[in-house]
From TrEMBL:
It comes from the Bacteria. Residues 1-26, 136-172 are annotated as: Disordered. Residues 136-162 have a biased composition (Basic and acidic residues). It holds the Pfam family DUF5997. This is DUF5997 family protein.
């Protein structure tokens, strides 16, 4: 039975509404679109926390200016920072301190590899260069591990592509 129709509670032709007294039957209820139609939507700029914006910009939040850390960043502001970075952002990207994902990428290791090597804080470009020059045993090991992971990922990607190619119908 469709909503808003009458159900028969008695045998025979007599039927009474199922809707409680004082309420309109379902078919007479106002539709949501009828109510919301004349309302105007308020367009508000989407904002993000400073930590999210710093992550998207690839910078260490604690090294950013206080105004950046204390406010919110809209998507428009983030796009402007990415396309035309101010001097403080260019300086942070150039010299750091860099967040762990950036440090890991610059060293050619995983974030977990950094932790295993005892690196848990942000590093400056100078500190990263010193680590590369020193080339400690843990860094050599982690780079080798990362190279194996990349090699295995490439092998799996190739295998999956070949399987996909074989399973797809050939066209004549």
């Amino acid at each position: 039975m469709a909503p808003g129709t009458y159900a028969s509670r008695n045998e025979g032709d007599s039927s009474e509404p199922v809707t409680a007294p004082g309420y309109p039957p379902w078919s007479e209820a106002a539709h949501t679109l009828d109510i919301l139609g004349p309302m105007k939507s308020q367009q508000t700029a989407q904002t993000m926390k400073p930590a999210t914006a710093a992550k998207k910009l690839g910078v260490y939040l604690r090294a950013t200016p206080a105004e950046f850390q204390e406010g919110t960043v809209s998507r428009t502001e983030l796009a402007a920072l990415q396309t035309d970075p101010p001097e403080w952002l260019r300086e942070l990207r150039r010299n750091g301190p860099h967040p762990r994902p950036v440090v890991a990428a610059k060293l050619g290791v995983s974030i977990s590899g950094l932790a295993r090597g005892g690196i848990t804080e942000a590093l400056t470009t100078e500190q990263i260069d010193a680590l590369k020059a020193e080339n400690p045993e843990w860094l050599q090991k982690e780079r080798a591990t990362q190279a194996e992971v990349r090699k295995e990922a490439a092998r799996l990607k190739k295998r999956n592509a070949e399987q996909q190619e074989q399973s797809s119908p050939t066209r004549s």
